[in-house]
Structures are given as C-alpha cells and as structure tokens.
Amino acid sequence: MPAGGSLSVAGAGSIPTPALAETADSPLARLAELIREAGSVVALTGAGISVPSGIPDFRSPGTGLWRHVNPMEVAHIDAFRSDPERFWGFYGERFAMLDGTRPNDAHRALVAMERHEQLDGVITQNVDMLHRKAGTRELVEVHGSIATCSCQSCSASVSLEQARALAADARDGVPRCASCGEPLKPDVVLFGELLPEQALGRARELCEAAQVLLCIGSSLEVHPVAGLPLLTHQAGGTVAIITQGPTPLDEIAAVRLEGDVEDELRALARALSLS
Any idea which residues carry the catalytic annotation? Predict the structure, then answer.
C-alpha cells in the first residue's frame, strides 16, 4: 500500500503532530511497518474513539453512561416496548449530549489512511455518526445509527432532527409516528435485538480478509462484535489493539498500545508519513 501526502481533511483542518517519539523497534513503529506491508487493513472502533469528542463511553468507572442507570431498564428492546416514556427520557438526554459533537483527530487519521489507500474500511460499534462526519467512505455501522428513527408498526422513518422535534412537542416526550401514532424507535441496536444481518456479514468479510485489524477504543466485551478480531487471527492476520485498559483479547494482539487514542492515532499517521 502506498504511503505519503499530508494529513488533512477538508473542512477539518490538519492533524497536529504530538511530541511523541517512536524508536525503530517501538510497538508503534512495528505497527506502521505491518500496515505498510499489508494487503488489507481494517479498523474496528468502539466508544473510546469518541471520548475525545466529548462523548463518554459506557463502562469507565466514574464517567461511563451506565454508572447511574441499568442499561437493561433503559436501553433494552423490552424497555422501549413497555415504557417508551422512560426510554425516551434517557435517549433524549443522550441525543442532546451528542448534538454538536465533532470528529476528533483519531477519526480524521482513519480518514487519511483510507484516502491514501492504507485502510480498506471501518467497522464501528458507535452510533454517533462521527465517522460519517469525518468522511469515512467504507463504513459498517454494526450497531446502527442515530441518524434516523423508525416506527416498529408501519416502518415509517424520520430523521433524527424530526424525531427530536416530535419529542419536544409531545407531552410525554415520546416522538410518535405521524401515520399510526406508535412510538418511534431510534435505528440503533438495543439490548435484546440482533445485529443487522447485512452489516454483520460485511464486517465478517472485512475481518476475515484483513491482514491487519486495528481494534481502536473498544473494550472488546460486547458480542458478537467482540468475536470479530478472532476471525482475523484465525485467518492468519495480525490483530493490533489500541485502547486504554485491558481487553479479553490482549493475548492475541501482536501490537498493544494503551495511550490516549488521539495521541496514538496521530503518531501512527506520522509514522505512515501522513503528516
């Protein structure tokens, strides 16, 4: 895969170079060499890549979204069906928190790698649309996206902006379908739901073909996505894990980076001559 060029994204500015030194035998330098030599590189991203954009992850002690609420009570499909008012009370706050968030340098580094033909695609567990906003072209959103909401009764669909307007006008805060009056559901995968078959199939294809899989900002604890790196490993590919804190798959990682995800991706971009 060719390298070179400057790391910049239209409308996003350029990625600043951090004061991190990489020696020739450092894990970062090894990862850059693996990427340069690989025929296929894929990224798998989790909540940690969006934390620098101001979006808290789910499980970090003291800051995670689940520290004060039981996800089974607010983010399960049964919770949506049985108590849409409480469900939308939680998701309304989540959407408000996401409003105005922007991609960070980690997202932009992946875009630069893709544009320089050093990345074949991004598989993300995130629903926050930041990879889309950054400009990733080959994107697999295995947990769906907050971009739209749908009626589970008649399949009518509205944009996130329309759903938020409907919720603001509703006495109980629940956006309802204009056609049948049923509560609208965000087009994200809730606990108790299966992942979209097409998205999961595409993610498996990418991981099975990847010679290098970059696992970025993911705890690798939520299945079936947590099993994707095993597909790469079993096919003879290299797994690199770039996230803070331990994961269940650390033992199969050929490269393990535990620094700040923005710093690590900036440094990787520099090692790949993208900045």
Answer: 143
Q: Where are the domains of the chain?
A: 1-55+103-143+195-275, 58-100+147-188
Provide Rg for the chain, Cα atoms.
Answer: 19
Tokens of 214: 């970059």
State pTM to two decimals. Answer: 0.86
Q: Name the average pLDDT for the chain.
A: 87
Residue ranges in 125-227 assigned as alpha helix (H) = 130-134, 160-169, 197-209
Q: Cβ(111)–Cβ(135) under 8 Å?
A: yes
Architecture of domain 1-55+103-143+195-275: 3-Layer(aba) Sandwich (3.40)
CB-based contact 45:123 (threshold 8 Å): yes
Question: Per-residue pLDDT tens for 112-135?
Answer: 999 999 999 999 999 999 999 999
Q: CATH for 58-100+147-188? A: 3.30.1600.10
* Beta carbons of 14 and 243 less than 8 angstroms apart: no
Cα(25)–Cα(42) distance, integer angstroms: 23
